[in-house]
Design goal:
- By secondary structure, this protein is α+β, with helices and mostly antiparallel strands.
- The protein has seven helices and four strands, in the order E-H-E-H-E-E-H-H-H-H-H.
- A four-stranded mixed beta sheet has the order 2-1-3-4.
- The longest helix has 27 residues.
- Bound molecules: glutathione (GSH).
Length: 210
């Protein structure tokens, strides 16, 4: 199998971190997003959406969503468990994972994609229709990202990890988003002591540098 990757992009980083936590090694091919390699015919033949990460299995099956790829590996290798053991825990982890993805990643991406000159006419990632940037969405994305960061602080003041008392996929998404938020100038500060302590603990894990 081959994992199509890009070292600086947040979504592929989630998958690399997940694999590192599992101790799974996969052959990787790096796609040069700044050079537009994801929109070139060669890559579009693999993933017509033109996004990374993409996992191609040995039989040619394509998985092109970060969390779907992580779930596939969780099924192949259940330990260490990162998606939940009981119906309730699995549902709770799903809640927090989604909150990190939609409230965090979604808001940060809104500000990032609508502000960078490199994304003029490509405010939505991938090979979809031309999408002009809307400057007002930068401010909205930053405001929502700050709100997400404050909500994460409240959560981590009550809970050692994002979804409960142990490390899960929700921590991976949250950690990657905290780093991604720096790209739009949104950072944890003095008002986020619990978040900063959690961040330091996650950063100390070997998977954080995957
Ligand atoms: N929902 C997808 C999002 C994938 C995505 O947006 N990937 C970005 C990199 S983080 C990308 O491929 N961007 C291509 C572009 O900028 O056109 C996932 O979680 O895998």
């Amino acid at each position: 199998m081959i994992l199509y990757d890009m070292d600086k992009a947040p979504n592929p980083r989630r998958v690399r971190m997940f694999l590192a936590e599992k101790g799974i090694t996969v052959a990787m091919v790096s796609i040069d997003l700044p050079a537009g390699e994801n929109l070139a015919p060669g890559y579009l033949a693999i993933n017509p959406r033109g996004v990374v990460p993409t996992l191609v299995l040995d039989d040619g099956t394509v998985l092109d969503e970060s969390l779907a790829i992580c779930r596939y590996f969780e099924g192949l290798q259940p330990e260490p468990n990162l998606f939940g053991r009981t119906p309730l825990e699995t549902a709770q982890i799903e809640c927090w994972q989604r909150r990190m993805e939609f409230d965090g990643m979604g808001s940060i991406a809104l500000a990032f994609r609508n502000s960078q000159p490199a994304f003029a006419d490509r405010a939505v990632p991938g090979a979809g229709p031309a999408t002009p940037q809307i400057p007002a969405l930068v401010e909205r994305g930053q405001m929502l990202s700050r709100h997400w960061l404050d909500a994460l602080e409240k959560r981590l003041a009550q809970s050692s990890h994002v979804a409960g008392d142990r490390f899960t996929v929700a921590d991976i998404t949250a950690f990657v988003c905290v780093d991604f938020a720096k790209w739009i100038g949104v950072r944890a500060g003095d008002a986020h002591p619990a978040l900063r302590a959690w961040y330091a603990a996650i950063k100390a894990r070997p998977s954080a540098s995957a």
